[in-house]
Write a structure and sequence with these properties.
Elements: H1 2-27, H2 41-49, H3 53-86, H4 95-125, H5 129-146
Length: about 150
C-alpha cells in the first residue's frame, strides 16, 4: 500500500513537471509554433548607442551595403560547398581539386569575417566618444545576436 501511494505521488509530480514544461514552451513560441524572432541587431545598436537621426541614416546605409556584400559572399559559399560535395560522386577523387575547393571555402569565409569586422569598425567610426565607449561594451552582445541559434536539444 505504501509503495502504491509513493508511485502515485511520483506520477503526479512528473505530470506537473510535464505540464509546466509544455506551458513554458507554448508561451515562448511565436505564431505558427515558431520561436519568437531574434532581435534585429541594427535596432539593438541604434537603441543602445542612442544614434541621432543623421547617425541612424548613416548606419542604415552602411548596414545595407554590408548585407549586400555578405549576401553575395554567402551565395558564393553555397556554390563552393555544392562543388566540393559534388566531388563525392566521383569514383576517383582528385585530392588537388578537393584541397583547392577547401581553400576557396576557407578564403570565402575569411572574406565574410573581414567584411563584418570592417563594417563594425565603420559603425564605431560614426559614434561620438561616449557612444564609442558604449559600443565597446555592447559589441559582443550584438555579435552573439548575429550568430545562428544553437541547435535544439534532442
Amino acid at each position: 500500500m505504501e509503495n502504491s501511494k509513493f508511485l502515485k505521488i511520483v506520477i503526479i509530480i512528473l505530470l506537473l513537471i510535464n505540464i509546466s514544461t509544455l506551458a513554458f514552451m507554448w508561451m515562448h513560441k511565436g505564431p505558427h509554433g515558431m520561436p519568437p524572432p531574434r532581435q534585429e541587431i541594427g535596432d539593438f545598436l541604434i537603441r543602445e548607442l542612442n544614434f541621432t537621426e543623421t547617425q541612424r541614416k548613416q548606419f542604415v546605409k552602411m548596414r545595407d551595403e554590408h548585407r549586400s556584400s555578405v549576401r553575395n559572399l554567402r551565395e558564393q559559399s553555397r556554390e563552393l560547398h555544392d562543388d566540393f560535395f559534388d566531388l563525392l560522386a566521383s569514383s576517383s577523387t582528385d585530392s588537388i581539386k578537393v584541397n583547392q575547393l577547401a581553400d576557396s571555402i576557407t578564403f570565402n569565409q575569411k572574406q565574410i569575417e573581414l567584411s563584418t569586422f570592417y563594417h563594425f569598425q565603420k559603425v564605431r567610426g560614426i559614434c561620438t566618444t561616449e557612444q564609442q565607449k558604449k559600443f565597446d561594451e555592447v559589441i559582443n552582445d550584438a555579435l552573439r545576436m548575429m550568430a545562428p541559434p544553437p541547435p535544439p536539444h534532442r
